[in-house]
Amino acid sequence: MKLKVVEYLSKGEFPLGEAEALSLYRAMRRARFFDEKALTLQRQGRLGVYAPFMGQEAAQVGLALALGPGDWVVPSYRESALLLARGLPIHTLILYWRAHPAGWRFPEGVRAVNPYIPIATQIPQAVGLALAGRYRGENWVVATSIGDGGTSEGDFHEGLNFAAVFGAPVVFLVQNNGYAISVPRSKQMRVDYIARRAEGYGMPGVVVDGNDVFAVYLEAKKAVERARKGEGPTLLEALTYRLAPHTTSDDPTRYRTREEEEAWRQKDPLLRLRQALEARGLWGEGEEAALLAELEEEFARELALADGAPEPRPEEIVEHVYREMGPDQRRAWEALRRGLHLEEVW
Question: Which residues does the chain have with pLDDT short of 70?
């Protein structure tokens, strides 16, 4: 199977209308703004361990905006940009990263599940959600995302095979940022492109320049339309790079060079899109300053909402697991409610 990397910006092409392109830029800039603020909050002790996505905005936002309003996203832990672009309020996301139970309850209308921490476990569940929509007579598409390292997990392969066999309406996005935490792609696999594996499951595999939001958005739209028409899943590989640490407890200087990082900074997805917009007279310093002022005001308002959230009750830790509590869950809930230690119950 011959694979070609889909790209537009490197060729000087501008395949979208002005409104679409500006919407993509605004969503990406908003995501980057959140990421920068979240890193600051974590360093101040006002956020837990955080997984930054800086440099991967095009992959996440491009996918998010390609979906319809009734579609679902099933994210992993680095998909904060995807969730923001799908309508999750900033204060909810802040509370999620504070491990506050209020951050686990997404508002009505935000069709997203909580980010998955165990690697690749979201893949089979995304397929299940897609098939549930079919059984319910819904026409939703499910998008889920994973990193290159996660594609070595069994759940990834089982989920793709399951989706292909049943023709599930799923878009699988692989954000190939070159590292499984600290392990480079060359030491993880022998295929040149992860999308090549799609052929083994009987689904299309597409490779895009993951720092080119036009490429991600347009190919994701094709995959979504294909899924909605009943033509099954697609594996979309976005070649990108994580400009920040794996998490706020990581030191990337131990496994990659400054030269490598600097080379990728020249391919920053925000920089590339902004330059393309400026070249067409669609953006400038005035527009950027106005947007940043708007984002600053929004973040301050949302942070105040998060800071004002009431302290969680102990029993909330076992709520929101199932629609109805099972016997063990009920006993734990009642014990925590009475202020007992769980060992006193078991």
Answer: 1, 340-346
Known catalytic residue at 242: yes
Buried b / exposed e along 8-25 (16+ C-beta atoms within 10 A): bbeeeebebeeeebbbbb
Q: Name the residue ranges covered by the structural domains of the chain.
A: 5-312, 313-346
Q: What are the Cα distances from residue 207, in Å, to 98, 202, 210, 297, 303?
A: 35, 16, 8, 37, 37
Per-residue tokens: 210: 């993951």
Q: How far are the Cα atoms of 139, 210, 217, 222 from residue 134, in angstroms, in the given order?
A: 7, 30, 25, 20
The per-residue pLDDT for 344 is 57
| Cα–Cα distance, 155 to 118 (Å, whole number) | 10
The identity of residue 161, as a single letter, is: N
Instruction: Give tens-digit pLDDT for 287-296.
Output: 999 999 999 9
Which residue of the set 255, 265, 320, 330 is catalytic? 255
**Quick count: other Cβ atoms within 10 Å of Cβ 56?**
29
Q: 278 Cβ partners below 8 Å, 6+ apart?
A: 284
Q: Supply the DSSP string of 184-202, one letter for each residue.
A: EGGGT-S-S-GGGGHHHHT
Q: Are 163 and 232 in contact (CB under 8 A)?
A: yes
Angstrom distances, CA of residue 177 to CA of 2, 36, 144, 237: 22, 19, 16, 10
Q: Which one is catalytic: 30, 32, 226, 242?
A: 242
The 10 Å Cβ neighbour count of residue 346 is 9
- Work out the number of other CB atoms within 10 angstroms of the CB of residue 343: 7
pLDDT digits (tens, 9 = 90+) for 155-170: 999 999 999 999 999 9
Helical segments of the chain, H only = 18-43, 57-66, 80-85, 90-97, 122-135, 154-166, 198-201, 213-228, 258-265, 269-279, 285-307, 327-338, 342-345
Per-residue model confidence (pLDDT) at position 322 = 82
CATH architecture of 5-312: 3-Layer(aba) Sandwich (3.40)
pLDDT at 341: 59
- Active-site residue (options: 29, 185, 246, 274): 246
Q: How far apart are CA 9 and CA 14, in angstroms?
A: 7
